[in-house]
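Budget justification aside, the reviewers requested a transparent look at the raw inputs and outputs of the sequence design task funded under Objective 1. We therefore reproduce one unedited record. The lines immediately below are the structure tokens for a 71-residue chain.
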């Protein structure tokens, strides 16, 4: 799992043979702004630490179950 920040260029792409499954969640507002201001989320560090990733991934899966499916 990785985070993409607006206006920050990246070169992430799926493996040519195996690909990947992708899901997107966009968010903004005062809480994310505070996380960035306090440097909990940093645009220069896109990959999440493993411990944080497990928590975020669990939340992300829960969020996907709540949202209507779109193709």
């Amino acid at each position: 799992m990785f985070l993409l920040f607006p206006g920050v260029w990246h070169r992430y792409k799926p493996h040519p043979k195996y690909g990947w499954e992708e899901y997107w969640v966009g968010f903004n507002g005062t809480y994310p702004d505070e996380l960035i201001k306090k440097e909990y989320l940093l645009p220069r560090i896109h990959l999440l630490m493993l411990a944080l990733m497990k928590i975020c991934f669990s939340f992300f899966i829960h969020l996907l179950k709540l949202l209507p499916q779109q193709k």
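The chain is about 35% helix and 0% strand. The radius of gyration is 14 Å. Computational costs for records of this kind are itemized in the attached budget.
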